[in-house]
Design a protein that fits this description.
By secondary structure, the protein is mainly α. The chain has one domain. The chain contains 17 helices and no strands. Helix 7 runs parallel beside helix 10. The radius of gyration is 21 Å and the shape is globular.
Length: about 400
Amino acid sequence: MEKKHEFIDKVIEAGIYLYIVFMFLTKGEGLRNVLIFGNFSLWLLILKYRKNLYLLKEPVSILCWIFVGATLFSVIFSIDPLYSFLELRGEPIKFILLFSVITTVMADEVKLKRAVYVCFFTALLIVIIGYYSYIFLDIPMLKPYTPLMHTGHSGSNRFARYLNTLLPFSFILLFLLKKTGNKALFISLLTISIIALILSGSRGGYIAFFIIVFVWALYLSQIRRYNFKRVIVFLVLILFIFGALSWFYSPYGREKISNLSKQISTVNLRTEAWGPALDAIKKRPFFGWGYGYRIYYLDEPYRDTPYKIAPPKGSHNMFIKVLFHQGIVGIIPYVSLIIFSAVIFWREALKTSGIKSYILIACVSVIAGNFIFHAMLENTPRLHYLAVVLGMGMAARGIDENSHN
């Protein structure tokens, strides 16, 4: 690239880092939109000079386009086509723009290393806001509860999902940091962050984090030949420590654990939340009821079901949500995207080393923890969060094999 093109590329890169910092904050929606659409506009200006556009034609990218295409298709069969069409301006378009830009711009070892530091800084920012809210605002569970960041009624689960998106990338610093003092400081801050996750009282967050650590442990057992049985014992120990800390230091967590047997027997009441959506899905299984948050809360999908009216709460299951809105036409591409991206990234991670391998395994752990297991209990983070994770993974795949750490 010429110097002016390199300058534009650096501006886009800085915009990506800034977006990651503001990604989960309640404030800053306008800035996030400027960063997304501004970065994409700059990206288009120098598009013909990019030599890695082939990344947008690889299997994971193709699955992204198919899923977005299925979302567009669902508009045609929506019970409110105009509303569904207007909703495309939100998550679907942002998914496309973010994925395209991150995949091609961040395909560089130095850039990805910087992104790791940005992810850890963002995690610390969220944790600090959470601790401030927990200590000074006297709330029963640790979660952000300030004007800058407010996670709403599902605060603990959302807070846990945010951390479970950022911490897997932060883990990479264990391998990047060389000085003992820096590594000790990082481990201390990481421990404080994990304790914040524990004090959130989010069982879905616990499960997701356990899966994340399991994926990393399995990866290390393959790459560094760690004893897998010891890894399993270590994970069980972590689970026990999670439970103990939650019991002794979080009243909300203690209440959750005390009622655990009752909640398991009722599957945490999730099946009751699934019922209305599943009955509505039976009425329009192939194309769904149409894209858009509001459609789930209209009475029309439930009139010919035992429920008659819309439920007061969501489905608490991302896969049921996609099936409700987009039907079989939408759920097949979505599940395929989640599963195949995890498999492709995993296989690539085992074949490579250094930052490329670490980024790929971080992406696999986030997908497994947040977008598979936690997704079965809650509606997972928005599509543009998934775009960031997949974009980072594809960028790692695009690193030149001949480059050095």
